[in-house]
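Supplementary Methods S3. Complex input for the magnesium ion-bound model.
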Amino acid sequence: MSAKGVRIAVVGHTNTGKTSLLRTLLRDSEFGEISSRPGTTRHVEAAEILAAGVPVITLFDTPGLEDSMGLLSLLEELGGRPQGAGIESIRRFLASAGDYPQLAQEAKVLRQLLACDLMFYLVDAREPLLGKYLDELAILALAARPVVPVLNFIEQGHYQDAWRRQFARLGLHAVVAFDTVVYDREGEKRLYQKIQTLLEPHYDSIQRLIDEREQDWQQRRRGGAEHIARLLVEVGALRVRADAGLQQQMAEQLQNRVRRAENNCARSLLALFRFADQKLTGEVLPVSNGLWTLDLFDPNTLKQLGVDVGAGAAKGAAIGAGIDLMVGGMSLGLATGLGALVGATWGAARRHGSDLAARLRGHRFLCVDEPTLRAIWLRQRWLLETLDTRGHASQRALAIKPEQMPAMPDAWPVWIKLLRAHPDWSTLSVGNGPIDSIEAGLQAAVRSASSELLQPDAGFSGPKTRSALVREMVMALQGSG
Ligand SMILES: Nc1nc2c(ncn2[C@@H]2O[C@H](COP(=O)(O)OP(=O)(O)OP(=O)(O)O)[C@@H](O)[C@H]2O)c(=O)[nH]1
Ligand SMILES: [Mg+2]
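Predicted complex, serialized as structure tokens:
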């Protein structure tokens, strides 16, 4: 493969996370092999980073350096150490590398280094500056290539400062701290900016890359938020007519429709963040092959998300978990509790014709209950945040923890009221059999009856249309990022 753009060798001691760094920068969880065993990468492997479809950087993953002491003393033997002659000693070693089979891995690294414009030198910041690392640095200095030291494992990296001081002593100031298993947007940008500083002629092409990555990120965040907002509208506004005797059956159908919609959303998020082809099992993320491993209507799901179901749970269970029975546009629970408001509803409906109101009275609707809507919001949001900060090298298993769940947005009750009042905002209702004219009339009556319910809130200034509501939800989701 011919190298395009800036050629960067990723070098360092074995197990410092070189291959992990490539995965994260490439957004490719399938690149190379990662393992906690030392000596995992055995050959140099290249991969391109593109901006506007043009290769801007070619990264070369290299095997880990293992015997730096042996290599350094050999290089000193071969070349002596008069200043400037360093690179000659490397060339001499490479010319006779066959004589040193014990240094075969090291030879591959040095050969690649000489063919590159710059190197990322990876350091495990949990490790002190042992002699073997100082020897590595001495060898790399012989290659006379610009170096960007990358401090990895910074979460537990107690020796960061010692390493930084050492790098400064060697005149290496462009140090970056970058946990390769975390996707750190700012860290990645700093890494690219160091290349700009060290390789001035490539400044513009790297800037294009930085800008494109920023735009990609904005688009991913926004796209992810839109998927979630649309899901909420679809499910929140969804309402099906439940004829007497068919309620159980209808409730099951409703649950299935909602499950499918929620899983589709998860699948879209995984694809958007390029985690779709990773063999994510239920052990790594609670989403496996785009399906949530814990069913939405399993009571444990609500518990896991810290959603308090309150008094509604028992009533819901009678119809189907997560399903509310609504009478004339109101939840049964709400209707019985708030007799006065029910009166207002009937009043409003009656104004639309007593005939219609009479029919309306007899009709019952099923919809997804509020705790379940909250659960959908919380766990899709959790997935969005998780994927947004997950490096493609991450092997970390993640579980949802109730204490990590954010508060619901202030506008939540307004959104729910709106959705309840707009069954026509959900395309999921289609497929429930033909909506005949009576049904359409009923929905209109229910809608206006429900909007009457919104009237008492004098300060109500919620969104007026479906797309305005989606926009507001997207903003709430993005504000959290
Ligand atoms: N917690 C944590 N683990 C990491 C990080 N970077 C790498 N690892 C883990 O460290 C181990 C080694 O990572 P690799 O990417 O295979 O390291 P390498 O430098 O390519 O190793 P060799 O190819 O053997 O030289 C793997 O188990 C990674 O999951 C990090 O920033 N944080
Ligand atoms: Mg490796």
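The radius of gyration is 30 Å. Residues 18-19, 32, 40-41, 61 surround magnesium ion (ligand 2) (CB under 6 Å).
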